[in-house]
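Need tokens for this chain, all 279 residues.
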Amino acid sequence: MNRQELIQQIQQKRSFLCVGLDTDPKKMPQCVFDLHDPVFEFNKAIIEATAPYCVAYKPNLAFYEAYGLKGMESFVKTINYLKKEHPHHLIIADAKRGDIGNTSQMYARTFFEEYDVDALTVAPYMGEDSVTPFLQYEGKWVVLLALTSNKGSQDFQMSTLMNPQPEHLFEKVIRVSQQWGNEDNMMYVVGATQGRMFEDIRRVAPNHFLLVPGVGAQGGSLEEVCKYGMNDSCGLLVNSSRGIIYACNDDHYAEIAGNKARELQQQMEEELKKHQFRE
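Here are the structure tokens for all 279 residues:
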């Protein structure tokens, strides 16, 4: 999915919601465990309930890799189901890969050829040669970690560098990485809990899409994210995982997940109106 197709989906659905498929069997309702592949069947039900209200899905690889081959089979089935039944949704593999060049080439082949996802989260801290292999795939997105929502983001990402003009480390990551990719193939992860720091990010990267985790269970404010982070192309993909997929733990889990996704979509529609998002 290219940039214009993504913007069209946001326009049509009046939503910039990404549903995180952080699927944990310990949190799934008991009713799914009678099925052949509980993780996939849970994902499938969540997808069918939430697809009208979101534009993207983000399966987190850790929740599948933890269960070995069986978990990865569930991941592959989920990806294939999305591509067949909901081909207009962006699929982001949240794997946070990044290594020396030849290893990154193999990671890129894995996710962009073997699994054929649309986007992959990538850690940029080994530098250009660890990122550029992911940028060689036409129509695919690299989602660089920039300013994350966890407490530990203060340890390094917020460090001040005394360059000709003082800047935070995360600002340098965004500024320098724009020499490797562009707004058509690169996004940035920015945690919703970072508040007004979105202003600093938009000064460095005014046009790029931002993938924003941390709304809902982690306490991030959708209104604040939009106030400081939205641009005239929307420029945001706001992710919610636990607040949607684990909103209910009984037989009605999919229905309640759909309701939660619809609530967020309605809030997003109001934000798009407020910020005069272009048609």
